[in-house]
Amino acid sequence: MSSHIPINQVDPTAPTPQNTPLTHAPIAAGLSRPTVPDITEDNEQEEEETSTGGIQQAMLGLVHGKLSGLVGKSSGYVESLPVEVKKNIEALKGVQAKQVQLQNQYKRECLELEKKYLELQKPLYDRRQAIITGAAQPTPEEIEAGEQLSIKDDPDYQPLPKDVAPATSGIPEFWLTALRTHVGFSDIITDRDAEALKSLTDIRIEYLPTKDTKPGFKLRFFFRPNDYFENEVLEKTYLYQEEVGYTGDFMYDRAIGTEIKWKEDKDLTKEFEVKKQRNKNTNRTRLVRKARPTASFFNFFNPPQPPSDEAIESGELDEDELEDLEEKLEMDYQLGEDLKEKIIPRAIDYFTGKALEYEDFDANEDFEDIEDDDDEEEDEFDEDESDSDADTPARRRAPPKGRGAGATASSNPEECKQQ
Q1: Rounded to the nearest 10 degrees, how much is the dihedral formed by the CA atoms of 94, 98, 99, 104?
Q2: Distance between CA atoms of 49 and 51, rounded to whole angstroms?
Q3: Radius of gyration, alpha carbons of the chain
Q4: Of 4, 93, 134, 276, which residue is 20 to 30 A from 151 by alpha carbon distance?
Q5: Local structure of residue 247 (DSSP, 8 states)
Q6: For residues 375 and 78, what is the distance between their CA atoms, to the nearest angstrom?
């Protein structure tokens, strides 16, 4: 497993004499699965076809096993070439190294172009925030421009009355609604989170300074004073590796979150439980208050960290743990990219739901629930019963399968995309 997630999830493996292709060989493709016999066939025919199908299944498993052992292994072709040809091969590697350097330079310049246009958009983002919060009212020209877009999208749209003034209070719960429209965030925002997110007034993006060794960007969440935490701004920084990956795109390195200063008993990332315990020897009882982690949007600011190469090589994490961590890293990275590329620049489309028309739901994709097993601490006390201070937060489900993208879908941003 790699501890880094590429921006574009593209399989770089190519069928060459040096590497066995990952696709099935023709012999495997020619083997068919056993067919279900028709109910009108006699028993003898059923037994014959079942026997044939079993043999084919066994052959298919044998072929797949052989192929899996050949993936990535040398065919011996390159090693068998004369030294004179091998020198040409090494020369091509040197030429390619210069190409990679130019690709690094190109990607860095793309980031500078994105920074330039982000600066040009800042006055528009300021204007958007002022209208959302009620700090300023929209002009008739802005309303007219918006209505023209609505008519373009829906010819049956009816223009709003001219004699009604815009609300002075802005747009309530704007960012909460926009985030809940996004498939990935809708699944991690609980009902308890929603109360805190009602005080979210803006989300902005900043690119890291050019002088920094590692490129990246920072997401900033601005909040009004609320009952849950002291922070006015929550930040999350995404870092890329210094050099582009094999596919020619920046590779995700890691994310850094903000420490949330929770008010007393308001930590939304924990669930508090009061358990009654009975002493096995004295039969006395006591009440113990325990805090355990729980699902919350605000876990977004405590991102998972990639394992070190040493931890992987030493076997500190088993295969299942590594796979689980990689899924969490990919999910975390995808949410950050979607905020940068989609939600922040197209916030009004997520608020109205229009953005879902441009997402790409896979109606045939199947998901299954993942359950965590919690281990209970044991001591000389037996637990009789427990009373939760807070009910288990209800998680909002994603919109129905149709048009839209899941959070774990791989990102494929356009080259030098404007922000």
Answers
A1: 140
A2: 5
A3: 28
A4: 134
A5: T
A6: 53
